[in-house]
Design brief:
Layout lengths: L3 E8 L6 E8 L17 H7 L6 E7 L2 E10 L4 E9 L8 E10 L7 H25 L1
Antiparallel strand pairs: 1-2, 2-6, 3-4, 4-5, 5-6
């Protein structure tokens, strides 16, 4: 059973870099049936239920919003996944947990691999900022 509400996938100009954007419910069940809005302390558990287990976690500020960030290294696939996630708390029944991930190779023959990853992270952060502010403007 998928818990994801909306999913969007994108490939960059580098076919080894992959982005995934989706939302998860911000309520434990329908708010019309007495569902409770998740708290910041529930985020890690929610992401683990969505198969996101992080080796490293921190927070970053994108514009005026504090996003949680998790990094997962997969030696098996020789790749890493950088995931940004944010709990909307506008008081609306349509609040979601916004999730944006970037999957990229750990080693690359390209001399500009670091630059490509940084560029794609910046692009993903820009999209997340736009999505966050668009949702709050509605």
């Amino acid at each position: 059973m998928s818990r994801r509400d909306v999913t969007s996938e994108a490939n960059s100009s580098d076919p080894q870099i992959y982005a995934l954007l989706y939302t998860l419910n911000a309520y434990d069940k329908s708010p019309f049936n007495g569902g409770e809005h998740y708290q910041e302390s529930d985020l890690d558990e929610n992401l683990e239920q969505d198969q996101q287990k992080f080796d490293y976690k921190t927070t970053v500020t994108i514009k005026d919003k504090t996003w949680h960030v998790g990094l997962t290294n997969s030696e098996k696939n020789n790749s890493a996944q950088l995931t940004f996630y944010y709990l909307e708390n506008t008081g609306s029944f349509s609040d979601s947990i916004l999730v944006g991930s970037l999957v990229f190779p750990l080693d690359s023959d390209a001399n500009d691999a670091k630059e490509k990853i940084e560029s794609n992270v910046a692009y993903l952060k820009n999209i997340l900022e736009q999505v966050t502010h668009k949702v709050e403007a509605q």
